Every structure is written in C-alpha cells, then in structure tokens.
C-alpha cells in the first residue's frame, strides 16, 4: 500500500471519486467509491490498509469494484463520466474464476480496466486480459517512480475519453491549465440540441462536430463553435457519420471553471445556476 497511497494524488478529487478494494481469496477491505475524504485522509486510509495475504482471487476483487460503480447515484451516471478501474496484480491468480471474465463484464458495464503487473514473476497474458488487451492500458512495473508516471499517463488518456452525458444533464469542469480539454459525445435528438455554456471563472470555448468515434473535433476540424451562452446544434444531415455529436471544451486561461447544460430542442433560456 506504501506504493499505491501516494499515487492517488495523480487524480483531482474535484473531478473524480476514488475508492479501493483489496482482496485475497475474498474481498478483505474496501474504501467506498462515494466518500468525502480529502486527499490527505484518503491517502492515510490507503496506507493503513493491510496488504492481503494468501491466495489471490482477482475475479472477486474486480466484481466487487464493478458493484461500487453500479451503486453510483443516478445523477452521476447521467453525466456519463468515464469510469476507470485500476487493477494491481502479479498476474498469478490461483483461486476463483478467470479474472479476464470479470474484466470483460466490466467493459460491458462501460468501465475501463487498466492492469498493472507488479513484481518480478508476472503472467503477462493474464495482465493483458485484465486490460481487455488494450495496449494503452496495461503496464509492467517494479518501482515507485515508474508507477507514478504510468498512473499519470493513464489519467491523461482518460481525460481524452469522451464523457457520454444524457440530454438534460448538467456538467461542471475545472481546468487548471490553459489549453486543457474535456470531451463529450451526445446523441442528437430529432429536434436538435442547445448547449448552454457558462464561464464562471476564466474563459472556456468549444467546438462540435459530427465525427466518427475515431476522430475528435478541433480548431481545424469542426462543424460549429461553442461560445459563452446558448448554441443550437441542429440534427445531423442524412450524410453525417452518425447522430452523435462530439463536443470539445478548451480552456483559454488557467484555473477556468465552466458549467455546461445540454437541452433538447432550440432554446435561448439560460439554465438556472445554483
């Protein structure tokens, strides 16, 4: 735990909920995903968790973590925030069902699994399977500094994964640096969408485009621009790649805080802000 505890600081608690499950033959300890711990307290709780001993049953650990995600409040689910499950393993499971099956179930539940093979004797095939064979999300690590950089890399990658909010939902984003980006993918209804963008601190703009899932809109590739206020996105033409629109928000000043609400149809009435 002394290796993992300090690394959670790679996440921003203003943007993410962090929980933890430890397991041996069964789940031994957990920190609920929905908690109100400040970063120092969260790290203290992780450092205080005893290292599990005995047989390893990662299938049980992964499935318990999936249930944590499934118990998220409905409002959190509506926001379509990407969900990430980090699995630390020797890749040598010796009890229970195949962890690859649990990882596959996680993927079917829209949870991205990232596997870290830790130690000197690692079953690489098992580590790859836990990451659902995505080469960007499995790592072999032996040292604290390597793990720190690997987790930071995963966090950066996850921030480029589009959130999938539902129409009618409202999101807030804090972007610490200028030119930092957030991504969204939304299904456009027959009567189109209105995006309400409210800059509460700093400045943020955006772009939107009907693009294939493999592409992201940018200042060089877009169908429309999002500025502060209300922007209407019409339903796509029949030649458009899909009915999904990808939205990118980009901060132009450090420490920008922006609120975005997605409303069906054409409306210029600004959403209420608490």
UniProtKB/TrEMBL annotation:
Residues in coiled coil:
none
Q: SMART domains of this UniProt entry?
A: VWA
All copies of the VWFA domain together span 1-158
Gene Ontology cellular component? protein-containing complex
PROSITE patterns with a match to the protein in the record: VWFA (PS50234)
Superkingdom, according to UniProt? Eukaryota
**InterPro entries per record:** ECM_Assembly_Org (IPR050525), VWF_A (IPR002035), vWFA_dom_sf (IPR036465)
For this protein, the record's PANTHER family field holds: COLLAGEN ALPHA, PH DOMAIN-CONTAINING PROTEIN
**Protein name per its UniProtKB record:** VWFA domain-containing protein
Q: Which organism is it from?
A: Bemisia tabaci
């Amino acid at each position: 735990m002394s290796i993992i505890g300090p690394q959670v600081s790679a996440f921003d608690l203003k943007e993410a909920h962090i929980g933890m499950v430890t397991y041996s033959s069964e789940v031994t300890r957990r920190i609920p995903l929905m908690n109100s711990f400040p970063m120092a307290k969260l790290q203290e709780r992780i450092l205080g968790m005893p290292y599990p001993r005995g047989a390893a049953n990662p299938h049980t650990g992964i499935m318990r973590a999936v249930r944590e995600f499934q118990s998220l409040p409905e409002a959190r689910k509506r926001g379509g925030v990407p969900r990430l499950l980090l699995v630390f393993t020797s890749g040598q499971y010796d009890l229970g069902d195949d962890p690859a099956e649990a990882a596959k179930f996680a993927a079917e539940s829209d949870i991205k699994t990232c596997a870290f093979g830790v130690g000197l004797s690692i079953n690489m095939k098992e580590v790859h399977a836990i990451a659902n064979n995505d080469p960007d999300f499995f790592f072999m690590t032996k040292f604290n500094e390597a793990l720190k950089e690997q987790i930071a890399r995963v966090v950066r990658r996850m921030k480029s994964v589009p959130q999938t909010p539902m129409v009618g939902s409202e999101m807030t984003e804090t972007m610490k640096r200028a030119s930092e980006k957030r991504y969204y993918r939304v299904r456009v209804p027959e009567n189109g969408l209105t995006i309400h963008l409210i800059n509460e601190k700093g400045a943020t703009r955006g772009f939107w485009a009907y693009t294939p899932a493999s592409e992201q809109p940018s200042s060089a590739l877009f169908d429309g621009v999002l500025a502060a206020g209300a922007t209407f996105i019409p339903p796509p033409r029949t030649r458009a790649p899909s009915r999904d629109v990808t939205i990118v928000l980009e901060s132009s000043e450090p420490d920008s805080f922006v609120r975005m609400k997605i409303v069906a149809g054409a409306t210029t009435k600004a959403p209420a802000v608490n």
